[in-house]
Amino acid sequence: MVSIASKVGPSRSSQRPTVMNLKLAVSRYDFVTVGPIAGREVLVSFEDQLGSVIDYEDVPHEDLVYIFRAVDTLRKYLDRSEDLAGVDITIEKHIPFDTYLGGRAATAAAVMVALAGLWDASIAREDMARLARHVGYGVADAIIGGAVISSLRAAEETTTSVLSQGQIALVLVPAAADLSDAEVFQTVQAISSADVDPVADQTLLEFDQKLIDAVSRGDGKQLALMMHNDFQPALVQIIPEHNDWLTAGMDEGALAAQTIDRGPSLLFVADTQDAAYQLAERYEQRMDITAIAEYGPVAGARLL
After folding, report:
1. 16: which DSSP letter?
2. Which of 104, 135, 176, 241 has its CA 20 to 30 A from that of 60?
3. pLDDT digits (tens, 9 = 90+) for 291-303
4. Which residues are paired to 21 by β-bridges?
């Protein structure tokens, strides 16, 4: 799931502010293969797109936490004995780690769906999404797929589906940087504090209905006019070269250029899928940075 719009609420005491994201499930997946093994052991291995094993030292700890939590959450829900829950999990990574492209949540969602198939579980997608909220942020969104509005306030996550009738052409530029959430949130609040209206009601966050309508219709041109990321000024301040990356995308024909959520990856909107492929090629040649043409919204995690 990729955030195409993000809003950040005001900071309140020691709690992290409410964050609302408008997300699209895009056409880049991690693939999970599961098989039973005797006993209760859970084995997890990662491979790249060429089938080469990824060293555990290169796997973020939190990704492993999500996977083991996904196994345990589903096992407990199905009241399945640990002695019968041994499983060998192989994950083929197509979504780079730590890029805020939703890869951690997508992998955990795929593990849950694959295990439900392996264990012959009859479970509605809505129930699976409810369970997924116990696994970690964004996993429920990856189960649901499509277009969603996701809100995270304190420890409470809510997801609302958006009816979508068309697809939007996108170019993703995966990027990872050593950023802490605390630093990003502090910078967001420092930038926004000067613009806060002390009279205005700051307790509610919502997206403009025209933005929702653009996503629903698959109208890339209207989306490009409406999309916004409250984290972007902070990210550009922390990593100044991002401004050059964004400008280059617009120079090469993007309808809009934006950072993704609170991370360093970039998102460009194109008019058509052919235009997205051409934009990705030109951007790579110009910036010597990987750019990937994708589209969304697409279905959430599913069995193949």
Report:
1. P
2. 241
3. 999 999 999 999 9
4. 6, 150
